[in-house]
Amino acid sequence: MSQFTMALGEMARGAVAPSILPVWDREFLYARDPPCVTFPHPEYDDVVGTKENIITIKEMAEQSFFFGPTEISALRRFVPEHLKGCTTFEVLTASLWRCRTIALQPSQEEDVSLMFFVNSRGKFNPPIPVGYYGNCIVLPCVVSKAEDLCNKPLGYVLELVMKAKARVTEEYVRSTIDLMVLKGRPHYKTDSTYIVTNLTRVRLNKANFGWGEAIYAGPPNDDQDIPGIFSMYMPSTNENGDSGIVVLIGLPIPAMELFIKELKVMLT
After folding, report:
1. Domain count, the chain
2. How far apart are CA 263 and CA 251, in angstroms?
3. How many other CB atoms are there within 10 angstroms of residue 81's CB atom?
4. Which residue range(s) make up the domain with 68?
């Protein structure tokens, strides 16, 4: 999406061809013959859901939260010494998942899940061509008992996130592709799940169709069937001129109040 938007902008500004020419070679990500699933993929586990479990839009509250250098530093106070090398994405995601789970008050024995999109383009040897416009995204999954997530220190949650992210290798991607073939392209699970997509490096805000860069850019959150499941991380600047990340959170109204309270404890 980002490459296509940038190419369209270049040509709208007068370029004869985009600076990065598209590569069609779909066979880069074909399944193996025979397909061979070599990793567990709980993100695609069969889920039995009921209509009664779906929260309607009318019962939801949505609020955006800004995380700049001050907020990220506050969250890093909870990071144990052996995990100090964590990224901003990892510590932010671990913190939000923990606060969100506490706010939702699930049964302590319930398994809750976190999934996040990972760009796997840099995981291949030889590398995927820069101009490959196909989908190179995988969705690793973290599973924890709600009791552990709510009561253990942030380091426990952070380590789960870091290990899941590190699990994404070329073989992991190949395993995912083979699973798609064997299971008929299953949909990822959504019950008791929080899904994060990091769009801070997609550069949609740099799109320029001849009138300058975008003032704001981001996809709509229009999935009406599973509101509150997704959070998108978008680049933003606050009123003080600080660059940071804006995160949209959707929760049932009572849970939103608890979420804000938990997050405030971590930030102050």
Report:
1. 1
2. 14
3. 6
4. 2-267
Given a contact cutoff of 8 angstroms between Cβ atoms, the answer to whether 146 and 112 are in contact is yes
Longest CA span, the chain = 60
Token pair for 175: 């395993």
CATH number at 69 reads 3.30.559.10
Distance CA 235, CA 66 (A): 10
Say how far apart CA 103 and CA 190 lie, in whole Å. 18
One-letter identity of residue 38: T
Could you read off the pLDDT of 145-192 as tens digits, one per residue? 999 999 999 999 999 999 999 999 999 999 999 999 999 888 887 778
Separation in Å, CA 240 to CA 41, 214, 227, 237, 263: 43, 20, 31, 8, 21
Kindly report, residue by residue over 58-93, the tens digit of the pLDDT: 678 889 999 999 999 999 999 999 999 999 999 999
Closest-CA residue to 243 (of 66, 110, 86, 79): 66
Name which of 74, 51, 158, 166 is nearest 114 in CA terms.
158
* 153 and 78 Cβ atoms separated by less than 8 Å: yes
